[in-house]
Design brief:
The complex is a heterodimer of chains A (about 100) and B (about 140). Chain A has about 100 residues and is mainly α. Chain A has 3 helices and no strands. Chain A is elongated, with a radius of gyration of 17 Å. Chain B has about 140 residues and is mainly α. Chain B is about 70% helix and about 5% strand. Chain B is built from 5 helices and 2 strands. In chain B, strand 1 and strand 2 form a beta hairpin. In chain B, helix 2 runs parallel beside helix 5. The longest helix of chain B is centred in the C-terminal third of the chain and has 27 residues. Chain B is elongated and about 60 Å long. Classes of the chains: A mainly alpha (about 100), B mainly alpha (about 140). The interface between A and B is medium-sized, with 13 and 18 residues.
Chain lengths: ~100, ~140
C-alpha cells in the first residue's frame, strides 16, 4: 500500500465516522427529552461539521474550506451561548425548565 | 448574564473575530472573503461582547452609533465610485495604483475596489449591529 492509497483510505474512513457521529447527534437532537440535551446535540453537530470541512479540505485540496471551518468554530460558540441564555431566561420567567 | 468565565472568554473571542474580519476584508479581491463577510464577522464579535457584558458596554466599545457607521460606509462606497471620474472612466470603474512596480512584480497594488469594500464592510457592520442591539434592548 502506497502512502497516497493510505491517505485515500483514511479520508474514506474519516468521512464515514464523522457522518456516523452526525447521525447519532441528530437522533439526540430529535429525541432529546430536555432543552439542554438538544443544545448539546446541536453543539456536537457543529463540531462534526467543522471536522467534515477539515477532511474535505484535505480530500479536495480546496483550502478555502479551512476558513469555513474557522468561521463555523467561532460562530458556533455564539449559538451555544445564545441558546443557553434563552434557556436561563425562560426558567427565570417560571415557564418551566423542561420542554 | 453574570458569568465571569463568559465575560473573560467573550473579550478574547471578540478580539479574535475582529482581527479575522480585517483579514477577510483585505484578502477579499483574490480569495473568498470581502467586505460583506468581513462586516458580518465583525458584527458577530460585537454581538458576543453584547451578550456577555451587556448592550450598554458594547455600545461604548463601538464608540459610534451603529446607524452613523452604516451611513459613513455608504458615503465611503459612493466616494470610491465617484473617484473614477478623475480618470475620465465610467462610474464605479476600478482604479489601480501599483507602488514600486517592476518588470516581473506588481509591487504594492492599491485600488478603489478596496475602498468600496471598506464602505460595504461599514454598512454591513452598522446595519447588523443596529438590528442586534435593538433586539437585545427590547427583550
Amino acid at each position: 500500500m502506497t502512502s497516497a492509497e493510505f491517505l485515500d483510505w483514511s479520508i474514506y474512513v474519516t468521512f464515514v465516522m464523522v457522518m456516523l457521529s452526525l447521525a447519532v447527534a441528530f437522533v439526540r437532537l430529535a429525541k432529546g427529552p430536555t432543552l439542554a440535551d438538544r443544545v448539546v446535540a446541536l453543539d456536537m453537530m457543529t463540531i462534526s461539521i467543522i471536522a467534515v470541512c477539515g477532511v474535505a479540505a484535505v480530500a479536495t485540496g480546496v483550502y478555502a474550506l479551512l476558513d469555513v471551518a474557522l468561521v463555523l468554530a467561532l460562530v458556533g460558540f455564539l449559538a451555544t451561548v445564545a441558546l443557553a441564555r434563552f434557556a436561563e431566561r425562560r426558567e427565570a420567567r417560571g415557564g418551566g425548565p423542561e420542554e | 448574564m453574570n458569568s465571569i468565565i463568559l465575560i473573560a472568554g467573550a473579550r478574547l473571542q471578540a478580539v479574535l473575530l475582529l482581527v479575522f474580519s480585517a483579514y477577510m476584508l483585505l484578502r477579499g479581491h483574490n480569495a473568498p472573503g470581502g467586505g460583506f463577510i468581513g462586516g458580518l464577522i465583525a458584527a458577530t464579535g460585537f454581538v458576543v461582547y453584547a451578550i456577555a457584558c451587556g448592550t450598554a458596554d458594547a455600545r461604548k466599545a463601538l464608540r459610534f452609533d451603529p446607524g452613523s457607521i452604516a451611513g459613513a460606509g455608504l458615503g465611503i462606497a459612493l466616494l470610491a465610485g465617484v473617484m473614477a471620474a478623475f480618470w475620465g472612466d465610467a462610474l464605479f470603474t476600478g482604479q489601480w495604483l501599483f507602488i514600486g512596480e517592476t518588470e516581473d512584480s506588481k509591487g504594492i497594488p492599491l485600488s478603489t475596489v478596496l475602498v468600496f469594500d471598506i464602505g460595504v464592510y461599514l454598512v454591513v457592520l452598522g446595519a447588523i449591529l443596529s438590528i442586534a442591539f435593538s433586539l437585545e434592548e427590547a427583550v
